Amino acid sequence: MGCEEWRDKLDLYADGELNPAEASQLSAHMRSCAACAASALERVQLKRLVAVAGTRYQPSAALREKISKTVVAKPRRALGWQWRILAVPALLVLIASAAVNWYVGRESARRQRVYSELADLHVAALASATPVDVVSTDRHTVKPWFQGKIPFSFNLPELQGSEFTLRGGRVTYLAQTPGAHLIYQVRKHEISVFIFQDRKTETATLPSGPTHAMSFNLENWTQGGLRYFVVGDVSTGDIQALSKLLQDAK
């Protein structure tokens, strides 16, 4: 498939709407096509700017209180005590149901927001001419590079005897929280590993385990006060194998 056909799919790729096979093929194409990589990176950056702009202006508590005071409740006739006996339990059930639905919806939206931002970071790294700031296959070079750049330390696995290769790393941010972004390679496919402190509300209550989001397979877990995310357009087996190496790293 040529650049013309791939350019028509870049928006779908940035939004995570390509099927896994096409997403993998496009990722491979971008590694050899600077024009398509630059176009994909531009779309991801625009998507992130729009997302930030959408949450930039939030009504203050004072404004909400001012609006609520301007709303005058209409007087109603007092209900008989018989109706109150029936209405109160029904109202409590309705309130409880609404609260549960609100909480579940909010948690689902938060999870999708985190996964979408991680997918964007992964795509941006693949599309960038310089996906890592420290270029090395040696974990003893990459790990010390992060000292003083992020407020925590982490261990990296020994990859000898595995199919994985460490390409390097860079500092990244999730919800304005600094963390490590590592790039691994397996059979010419890149996998992103993100590591953050597990103290912020954006990640602290995320359910651990594998999932599929935005055309990518993803696994996350907590360990030693840190939250790990492994993201890539590879099989779940590859994601789990790299995750196991990271979990066993010393």
What are its keywords?
single chain, 250 residues, alpha+beta, seven-stranded antiparallel β-sheet, 9 helices, 7 strands, 49% helix, globular
The radius of gyration is 23 Å
Shape: globular
Percentage of helical residues?
40-55%
Output the helix-strand order: HHHHHHEHEEEHEEEH
Number of continuous helical runs: 9
* Global structural class: alpha+beta
The percentage of residues in β strands lies in 15-25%
How many angstroms separate the termini?
A: 44 Å
Number of strands: 7
Residue-averaged pLDDT: 79
Low-confidence stretches: none
Spatial order of the strands forming the largest sheet? 1-2-3-4-7-6-5
The major beta sheet can be summarized as: 7 strands, antiparallel
What does this structure look like?
The chain is of the alpha+beta class and about 250 residues long. The protein has helices spanning about 5, 10-15, 20-30, 35-55, 60-70, 80-125, 140-145, 200-205, 235-245, and strands spanning about 135, 165-175, 175-185, 190-195, 210-215, 215-225, 225-230. A seven-stranded antiparallel sheet has the order 1-2-3-4-7-6-5, sandwiched between helices. Helix 4 packs antiparallel against helix 6.
Short description:
By secondary structure, this protein is α+β, with helices and mostly antiparallel strands.
Could you outline the blueprint of secondary structure elements for this entry?
Blueprint lengths: L2 H5 L2 H5 L5 H11 L3 H21 L6 H10 L10 H47 L6 E2 L3 H7 L19 E10 L2 E10 L2 E9 L3 H4 L4 E5 L2 E8 L2 E7 L3 H12 L3
Antiparallel strand pairs: 1-2, 2-3, 3-4, 4-7, 5-6, 6-7
Helix pairs in contact: 4-6
